[in-house]
Structure formats: structure tokens, C-alpha cells
Amino acid sequence: MGVSRVYLVDASGSMGGTSGLAELEVPKIELVKGELKQLLGDGLHFEMDDRVALVAFKNRKGKPLVKTILPFQYARALDENYAHLIGDISTINAEGGTPISAGLKEALSLTASEHGEREILLITDADYSLGEDPRLHIYDALMQHATINVIYLGTSEKLEMLEEIARKTGGSLRLATRPVDLHKHLFYPPDPPPLDPATEELVALASSKMNEYDSVTVASAKGEGTAVGGPQAVPGLEKELGEVKARLLKRYEDLGRELAALTLNRQEPLIALTGIRQMLERKRISKKEYLKRASEIEEFLGGLVSNEKSKKHALRVLDSLIAELDSRLFRAGK
């Protein structure tokens, strides 16, 4: 199952300028629009089941103005109505203030009906928000298991709010200080989380053994080994590959159990967080008090989300290595 991603674009007045980005010759909003046109026009950049949506937000006459430019569609099918989409993106203009909370609310309303992995990618040059505190939507993201990633255009010493929103939902905050940075962040995902030591050791071992096996079989095929044909020349290595595969399968099973345990570990803190949320909705506590009480639980849940992502990444790495080992063992007739 693919990723359902909302591109959430700040269209406030400051996006009509060039401040914060070196080497920028057009307004920031024009840079973002141009990159999105290029990105959404390249279906091959996305996986087959990836779905995308586009939302722009601003403040006009003291009220949030949020517009869904593109409701969720399969990314690889966008070329069917690409000309219309380009026209819609072109209508986005910069004005007013920055109601990040209103933008997040709309984006989360879209992801709520999606399945599989959900992500909101906020693109902004603001380190503040008009209206209610956008951190109130961390709860909604956690309940949906939706990640909020942020691309900040420029630099600032007041990014705590944006960093907190990203961190507590298992996302990241990345800075774009040049136009090329925005292109990189849009077209290439953040670096995957590091592998745990046990998995990293096995990955290194498997890679080393496969490289050794490939070198010997290539030499054998060229007549430099003890026998022509390759596989018959390295029975010892074939056995070692089989043993490494068994260890990878065992680690794969262990990670699967650990991932299932993390899912169970989410339930109790989510129930506790929901209880605090209900107190807010019944006006038994203020928004300020809610944020204070919810913070520790959100930090814990954000850590679980990051841990889950790390384990899922490790499972994908192991799955790929097991397939590579299988191909070599198959050729060897094992």
C-alpha cells in the first residue's frame, strides 16, 4: 500500500517575497508552485499506489482562507488532467497572514479517509501561526497515525513550534535556504532512520558474504577458479550464505514481533490522551492547560512512531537482502 501525502502550502503575504533564500530570483510562492508543477507532472517519481493532494492556506480580512487545490488522487494518474491541475496551481497567490492551524485542520480532514501510510508535508516560511495553536492538531495526527513533515523556507531561531509538531508525529523539520534545497526536499524523502545495531551487523555480514560469493563465481566463470560454472566451485560459501539467510529470517521475525508490540504499546497512552482531549472539548480545561498535560504523552507517542518507522525500514532492508540471497542460492541449486 502506498503513501497518501498532502502538500500543504503556505500562501501568506510573506511568501510573495524572496527573503530567507539565497540565489532566489522569483517570489517564494512562485518557486514552490514551479516545483510542485514539476513534481506532480512526473508520475514515475511516485510509487504505483501513492496518492497526493494539494492544499493552500492564507488569511484574508482576518479570516483563514483554506483551499483544496487537488483532492486525493493517484499520483501516477495525474497526467490525465495535468493541464487543468497546472492551471489550478497557477491561481495560488500570496497574501495575508499565516493560519497554519487552519491549514493542518483541512489537511487532516483529507487524510482521515485515506488508508495506509499518511503524511502531511507543510511548506512554509512562517515560524508562528495566526488563530489557534497548531499544536492542538498533534492529537488528530496521532489518532490517524499521520506524520507531519515540515519544509521551512529560510532560517529562524524560533522554530520550536514547527519542530515540536514534526517530532511528536514522527516527522522531521528540514530547512531550505536555497532554491535547490526545496527541490531536494520535495523530490527526495528524508534519509531513512538508522538501523539498530543487531540488524546493521547482519546487513554488513550478508553484504560481505554476497560480495565474496560474487567475486569467486565471476572468477570461476572466467576459468580462474577451480571449476568452470561458478556455483560448484564455492560450496563452502554457499553454506555460509544459507546460514546468513537463516539469521536474517530470524531477525525479520523478531522485528515483526517488536513492531506488533509497539502497536499494542500505543493503546494505553492514546486512551489517556483522548481523556485529556475530552476534558478540553467539554471546556473543563483551557487549551493552554491541555497542551501542558498532553505534551509528555505526545512525546512518548511520537517516539513510538519514530521507532515503528525505524523497524519498518529495517524490515524492508532485510526483505531485500533475503531476496538477493535467494537469487544466489537458486542459481547454485540450493
Number of helices: 9
SSE arrangement, N to C: EHEEHHEHEHEHHHH
Quaternary form = single chain
Number of domains: 2
CATH class of the largest domain: Alpha Beta
CATH architecture of the largest domain: 3-Layer(aba) Sandwich
Shape: globular
Sequence stretches where pLDDT stays below 50 over 5 or more residues: 225-231
Strands, total number: 6
As a whole number of angstroms, the C-alpha radius of gyration is: 24 Å
Report the sheet with the most strands, covering strand number, pairing sense and barrel closure: 6 strands, mixed
The gist of it:
With 334 residues, the protein is of the alpha/beta class. It contains 9 helices and 6 strands; from the N terminus they run E-H-E-E-H-H-E-H-E-H-E-H-H-H-H. The two termini are 32 Å apart.
Description:
It is a single chain. 53% of the residues lie in helices and 15% in strands. With 334 residues, it is of the alpha/beta class. The protein has two domains: 3-187, von Willebrand factor, type A domain (Rossmann fold), CATH 3.40.50.410; 197-331. The chain has a six-stranded mixed sheet with strand order 3-2-1-4-5-6, with helices on both faces. A hairpin with a 2-residue loop joins strand 2 (51-60) and strand 3. Helix 1 packs parallel to helix 6 (179-187) and helix 8 (235-281) runs antiparallel to helix 9. The longest helix is centred in the last third of the chain and has 47 residues, at 235-281. The two termini are 32 Å apart.
